[in-house]
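Hi again,

Forgot to attach this to my earlier email, sorry! This is the prediction with 4-fluoro-L-phenylalanine bound. I've pasted everything inline since the attachment limit keeps bouncing my files.
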Amino acid sequence: MKKRESWGTHVGFILAAAGSAIGLGNIWKFPYIAGENGGAAFVFVYLICIALIGLPVLMAEILMGRETQRNPVGAFRALNNSKFWIAVGGMGVVAGFLILSYYNVVAGWALGYIVEAIKGSFFDYTTPAMAGEHFNQLVQTPVWILGYHLLFAGLTMFVVYAGVKKGIELGSKIMMPLLFVIIVILVIRGITLPGSGKGMAFLWVADWSKINGNSVLVALGHAFFTLSLGMGAMMTYGSYMSREDDIPSSALQIVILDTLIALLAGIAIFTAVFSAGLNPAVGPGLIFQTLPVVFAKMPGGYLFSILFFILLVLAALSSAISLLEVIVAYFVDEKGWDRHRAVLVMGTIVFLIGVPSSLSYNLMADVKVFGLNFFDLVDYLAANILLPLGGFLIAVFVAWIWGSDRALRAIKSGAATWFRQRHEVSAGWLSVLKYFAPVMIFVVFLYSIGIIRF
Ligand code: PFF
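Structure tokens for the complex follow:
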């Protein structure tokens, strides 16, 4: 049998995992949900969710992968050969198909917007309504939307096709530093704009009156999405790690990088939006409808708009490859497929599943299920149902089914002394997985499917 692939370096793993975490969630979703939920107070709640639930669950996922050296289905099978738990792994693979199918679509918009930025189209707009009109026109053009969708899906397949070391790791080592440099440039541009202080205040001065049950739940749900938790992406990346690697420190670094980029994206975007005197709380259109107008008003806006959409594509690509890798690892490990075949066949299927999402804003705009178009339906199902459910089951599995003693012994292997020799830290990790995380996730889950309301 062929030797299973692995990371070439520790830093390669960190950058790839951070690349998975840092994505559209950080740059597109985080700023607009923070904008809608009152800014600083929401950011505070989000940080608590990341630290108290996201980090421990991330450690659990990486651990399952590293221990078993398998994709999510194989990982559950290796630790507990019951049909139910194997199906939980299978649910992760299904979530991979669904999330990637519409992720490709939004990333395709971003790719198309690099071209719009280069063409200087944004300078034709004076109001977000005009930019919105243009956005609507573009997404109603099937050739535009399907073309960029296909191009982005092709890019993702290209990276994953090249393998773990030569594709994902190398790609992340190039993309992540570039992403970091671009975001720092955009932050400097943002904070040096006149009136940027109002944007900073929006992010850092808390208005507690805006916090309610709903915003807490949005924050927790987003903590999962942004850290790529609940569907085995981090498990798959963990499976290419060596058993001597340090999981607690790695997870901490991944969380810090992800949070840093979300906050920097928030600073870059809100300083610019406030400086242009525009409304920060407009929802998903913030990036594609408000920002183009901001760039049109900004000194140097031409260059910064191009950089911004390149940033968005880099972030999306390094996440999309992790979604595709979950699917590919499953077919390679479980079905004995060769990587190239898995990438070509499955990448194409994911593209095809994404087509109705692509067309949700034009030819299929009238096709509604439960009042949602196809794009919104898949997003809702994956992000609000499959991820929290997966996260809940992973926490329960590690702490209760696989068992405390085994999990503790396993996670301590390779761990740095700050974790290994401090009983309260390791015991704290386990208690969160046992009690706190499942209860909190359960509440979010019931809320998100509408069973309870605050
Ligand atoms: N973490 C990614 C983001 O913030 O955009 C989204 C994501 C990637 C979710 C991979 C789940 C996943 F498995």
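The mean pLDDT is 92. The pocket of 4-fluoro-L-phenylalanine is lined by residues 20-21, 23-26, 99, 225-226, 228, 231, 233, 319, 322-323 (CB under 6 Å).

That should be everything now.

G.
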